[in-house]
Amino acid sequence: MPSISLKTPSASYDVTLGTSLLKTLRQRITRATGSRTSRIFFVTSPALWKLWGEAVTESFESATVLFLPAGESHKRFASVEKLLEQLARNGADRDSILVAFGGGVVGDLTGFLAAIYMRGIRVVQVPTTLLAQVDSSVGGKTGVNLAAGKNLVGSFHHPVAVIADIDVLQTLPKNELRAGLQEAIKSGVIRDPKLFSFLEKNADKVLAGDTKALQTVVDRSLRVKADVVNQDELENGLRMILNFGHTIGHAIEAATKYTVLLHGEAIGWGMIAAIRLAEQRGAMSEKDAKRVVDLIHRYGPLPAFKAKAERLVELSAGDKKNRGGAKRFILPTGIGTVEIVTDVTEDELLAATSAMLQEMSAMTKTKKQVKR
Ligand SMILES: NC(=O)c1ccc[n+]([C@@H]2O[C@H](COP(=O)([O-])OP(=O)(O)OC[C@H]3O[C@@H](n4cnc5c(N)ncnc54)[C@H](O)[C@@H]3O)[C@@H](O)[C@H]2O)c1
Ligand SMILES: O=C(O)C(=O)C[C@@H](O)[C@H](O)[C@H](O)COP(=O)(O)O
Ligand SMILES: [Zn+2]
C-alpha cells in the first residue's frame, strides 16, 4: 500500500502502514530523523512494553524507556511533569527523539512532552491501538485533560514520522479494538461512504482481527484524516468535521471523570446523540440514521454510564469548537457528508442527548448492554 503523506504549513511527514514493521523500526526512525539524533527515548506503558518491548528494542543499541501508567486518567499534567523531570535527569537534549509507543493516551501525552521539552523536540508516533492507528497518531493534536474538560490543554505538534504496524493489534483487548472502530465509523460517516460500506459488509472479519481487513480500515481512515488535516491544520474550519460525535462524547468522558468509558465508546454515544439531532432537524433521513446507529451498535456493545442530559449539555458549553458564545456542531447529512452548524439551541441539544440516554437505558433493560 502506498504511504500516506501529511503536508501542512508547519510539517511534512509520511505514515508507513503495514506488517512486520517493528523488526525494522530503528532503520525507519533513523531514515525519518536523520543523523542529527543524539538519543532515543521511548515513552510507553508497562504492560504493553512487557508484550512488545523485546521485539521493539532488538535493533536498538541503546534506548531509554520511560513509563506512563495505562489509562485515560493518567493523561494529566501531573504525568507530564514527572516525565519531563525524567527526560532532564536522563540527559535528553534538543537532538533527542521521543518515540510514543502506545495508544492515543501515550501518543497525545508524548506529543505534548515533545512540544514543550526544551521548547520543542522531535517525536515519532508508533501507534499500537486501532484507535491510535486510525486517528490519534496523525495530525499533531497533543495534550492532556483537565477536570473541567477533555484535551483542554495542549499544542499542535506533528510527529516527524508515523509507523503503524498492524501486527501489534494481535494483543489488543477486544473492547479496545471495538472502541477504535468507532473512530473508523466516524471517518466513514464524515467523508468516506466506501469505508462505511466496508465496515458494514466485513464486520465479522474486522472484529475477528483479520489483518487484511484491519489494514483496509486503517488505510482508509488515515486517508480521511490526512486529507482533512492537509487542508486545515489548525482546525479553523474543515478540520472540525473530525470532531463528529465528540461534542457530547467529550462531555460524557468528563462527566464520568475519564474512568467509565473508553474514548471510542464515548464517541459512539456522542455520534448517536448527533444523529438524533440531525434527524430532529430533518438533516438526515431515517434510513441513513438507522444505518449509522446500527453500525455503531454492531461494533459495540457501548457500555452504559450514568450522567444527566442537562449535565452533558452544560459540559458541552466548554467545547473548543465554540467561539464567541456560538456553539458549533457537526451534523451528518448522509453517509459520507456532514455540515457544520452554529444555530443549535440548548433545547434541541437537550432533546437529542435525552433521546440517546433513553436508548441506552432501554438497551440496559433488555440486557443488550454491558454495565461499567
Ligand atoms: N490526537 C488526536 O488526534 C486524537 C484522536 C483520537 C483520540 N485521541 C485520544 O486518544 C486517547 C484514547 O486512545 P486509545 O483508545 O488508544 O486508548 P489508550 O491509549 O488508553 O490505550 C488503550 C489500552 O490498550 C493498551 N494497549 C495499547 N496497545 C496495545 C496492544 N497492542 N496490545 C495490548 N494492549 C495495548 C494500553 O496500554 C491501554 O491500556 C484519548 O485520550 C483520546 O482523547 C487523540
Ligand atoms: O484530529 C482531530 O482534529 C480530531 O478531532 C480527532 C478526534 O478523534 C480526537 O479525539 C481529538 O483529540 C479531539 O480533539 P479536540 O480538539 O476536540 O480535543
Ligand atoms: Zn476522538
From TrEMBL:
It is found in: Cytoplasm. GO terms for cellular component: cytoplasm. Residues 67-178 form the 3-dehydroquinate synthase N-terminal domain. The keyword Lyase applies. It catalyses: 7-phospho-2-dehydro-3-deoxy-D-arabino-heptonate = 3-dehydroquinate + phosphate. InterPro entries: Dehydroquinate_synthase, DHQ_synth_AroB, DHQ_synth_fam, DHQS/DOIS_N, DHQS_C. NAD(+) binds at G104, V105, V106, G107, D108, T128, T129, K141, K150. Zn(2+) binds at E183, H246, H263. It comes from the Bacteria. Its EC number is 4.2.3.4. Binds 1 divalent metal cation per subunit. Can use either Co(2+) or Zn(2+). One of its GO terms (biological process) is amino acid biosynthetic process. Its cofactor is Zn(2+); NAD(+); Co(2+). Its main location: cytoplasm. Keywords: Amino-acid biosynthesis, Aromatic amino acid biosynthesis, Cobalt, Cytoplasm, Lyase, Metal-binding, NAD, Nucleotide-binding, Zinc. CDD domains: DHQS. Residues 180-322 form the 3-dehydroquinate synthase C-terminal domain. Pathway: Metabolic intermediate biosynthesis; chorismate biosynthesis; chorismate from D-erythrose 4-phosphate and phosphoenolpyruvate: step 2/7. Catalyzes the conversion of 3-deoxy-D-arabino-heptulosonate 7-phosphate (DAHP) to dehydroquinate (DHQ). Belongs to the sugar phosphate cyclases superfamily. Dehydroquinate synthase family. This is 3-dehydroquinate synthase. It comes from Terriglobus saanensis (strain ATCC BAA-1853 / DSM 23119 / SP1PR4). The gene is aroB.
